[in-house]
Amino acid sequence: MELRPLTEGDFAEWRAVRRANREWLAPWEPTPPSTGPDVVEDRLAFAARCSARARERQMDAGYGFGVFAEGSLVGEMNLSGVQRGPFQSVHVGYWIDRRHAGREYAPEALVVVLDHAFEVLGLHRVQINIIPRNQASRRVVEKLGIREEGTARRYLEINGRWEDHVRYAITAEEWEERGPELVAGWMS
Fold first, then answer.
1. What is the pLDDT of residues 17-75, one digit of tens each?
2. Which domains does the chain have, with CATH numbers?
3. How far is residue 154's CA from residue 152's CA, in Å, rounded to a whole number?
């Protein structure tokens, strides 16, 4: 498995995967803006998205990664909304190609980004927020033993409606205790 920032050169493969997964992902993602080009269909919009992600990395505001397995793009794993100062926190969001769901790519990629968040970025807290009925995404964090903290009511607007989200989190102290086991079990 490889995680790396997406580049303009990934457009054709990314577009094919997103097209194939449009219905699979629609219930879990925000409605795309009605103004401006469609990032899935417009190469320039995708290039702008890649540039925005590069600026986020430069500003230490976010870290987006394409997830590649067996030489193919199988999803994305993103660290978004990095907050420094006394909070030292970030949110994780991810999606996996339906054709690759259940192959353990998502938990492995999540361990990779957790390792990056704690060991490279020096963050204190990582949060993953999931719509309660999204059992596939919940299984990912549950396989890793990420702590559930509760439900945030009407947390994000997803697919046109305000959705509750179950909040999962892991702190640097928990990572210090459990990280070596997770890395050994998922990244080897």
1. 999 999 999 999 988 777 888 899 999 999 999 999 999 999 999 999 999 998 999 99
2. 2-186 (3.40.630.30)
3. 7
